Amino acid sequence: MSREDLEKALARGIEILNEFLPVKTYLYFPILYSACVWAVRRVFDYRERILAWQVWIDPDYIKTKPDEFILHFFATHGALSAAYEDEIDGRDMQVLRAAFPALYPVCGLEDAFLRGLFKAELDAADYRRIAAEFGERAAAARDAVTAAEADGDFWKELEAFGMEAAALGIHLLRDAEVQDMIVRLLKERMSGEPQAR
Amino acid sequence: MTAKTRFAAAVSAALILLLTASCASHLRQAKSAYVRGQELARAHRTGEALSAYKRAAQEAGLESRRNPSAQAFMVKGMAEASLELWRDAEASFLAAFGLGFEPGRAWASDASLLGLAVSFEELGLGDSATGVYERLLAKSSYEPVRMAAVQRYVDLAAARALTLAPVEKSRALARIVTAIDKLEANNYACGLYHYYHGQVESHRGDYRRSYEECVIARELGLPYEKVLRDNDNQIVFCYDRLVSSLPEAERGAFSEAHGAWAAKWGWKDARTPGWKKD
């Protein structure tokens, strides 16, 4: 695997997104990152996966959980347990239940696209912000992606990018390395200056 | 017969043959796409499965227009049901019934009821929807309808149970388990039913049973990735609860057995499924 070739492929991925979503730069990271995650697994049905959290017709997982499961989820997820320490200790189920539908798909089921969409908040361990903004931002992202797909080539080109990344051996990199590489390339593009590796 | 008429007859025969072959191939392609859709769904390749079902519905639609037959409408209805196009599926099954496919009428009625229940739910009429789902689970002979109804039913009925006082809640949860027990009795090899069972046992606080059902679900296979991950999380939750509550003698044996499952499933350790990055 050549890191240089992989970076070139990722840069092409950014170009594709720039073409189809020119002003939606906040979507570049989640789309590219999730495309890389699925490329590793040789799964290229990006459309359904990116839109999976809201519009996919699968029988869904059971969303109604008992209090104990919700408490366990918050208490056993490192940084999440720190962020909600008071509510966990006080068994404040009203707050925890309200935050659960947003945080469980991101931190519990680890949906790749949602993790990309909330990367800044995850890095900053700002889980309350995810809980507060999940509905609005997820819906906005869905609408933007749905608008981009009006041009049938969007998914085709994204799939071609994923296949190229897979062929170049993206699976040999750790998840954090892939994320860092995408972030660096995006920063370079925004600032027009090379970023430290 | 002149050479010209012989040629015309030969061309007609060839055209008829070609059209017949083309029709036959539409049905064959529809069946093949439907089976492929099922395989892809089982392999968690849901997007591709969706495409395969769409293809199956299109091919069966072409076949049913050119050469209407019970089989063509049946395949069309099955593909539409997989796409949750309940009204279309109802019409196709009725057409199949009209052409001699005996179960078509019942399947059409089930598809119609399911569509109605989904509408109730969307309108916020949860109790009405629950009643229809319950009826479908008890009476429907069409597996895809039962599969679609059970998830909606368990979610709705469990949410309702959570609002009840302890005794009523316990009764309501027992009722859900009874409904799932019947489904399992009809098709024990369906991993999804065991997943739902595990979820309800968790609401009842029976973590041992919940754990067992989730392990069975994982072993039998779950067709959707989100469901598989949620099932794994449920296994970890039950494992933690059991390890902290079992007597020491039992705890060791349980941990050992769980470790063997975790290794078989390729987990990183007893509490970390392979897909977890956090």
Structure commentary:
The complex is a heterodimer of chains A (197) and B (278). Helix content of chain A is 72%, strand content 0%. Chain A has 197 residues and is mainly α. Chain A folds into 2 domains: 1-53 and 111-197; 63-109, no CATH class. In chain A, helix 1 (3-20) runs antiparallel to helix 12 (153-167) and helix 2 crosses helix 12. Chain A starts with a helix and ends in a 6-residue tail after the last helix. Chain B contains 12 helices and no strands. The longest helix of chain B has 40 residues, at 3-42. The N and C termini of chain B lie far apart (82 Å). The interface between A and B is medium-sized, with 31 and 39 residues.
Gross geometry of chain B: globular
Order of SSEs of chain A, N→C? HHHHHHHHHHHHH
Query: What structural category characterises the helix and strand content of chain B?
Result: mainly alpha
CATH level 1 name of the largest domain in chain B: Mainly Alpha
Largest sheet of chain A: none
Mean pLDDT of chain B: 87
Number of E strands of chain B: 0
Residue runs with pLDDT of under 50 for 5 or more positions of chain A: 52-58
Task: Kindly estimate the percentage of residues of chain A that lie in beta strands according to DSSP.
Answer: under 5%
Q: What's the N-to-C terminus distance of chain A?
A: 18 Å
Largest interface (CB within 8 Å) is between: A-B, 31 and 39 residues
**What is the name of the CATH topology of the largest domain in chain B?**
Serine Threonine Protein Phosphatase 5, Tetratricopeptide repeat
Radius of gyration of chain B, rounded? 24 Å
User: How many individual domains of chain A?
Assistant: 2
The whole-angstrom Rg of chain A is 18 Å
Give the strand content of chain B. under 5%
**Count of helical regions of chain A:** 13
Number of strands of chain A: 0
Count of DSSP-assigned helices of chain B: 12
Shape of chain A: globular
The domain count of chain B comes to: 2
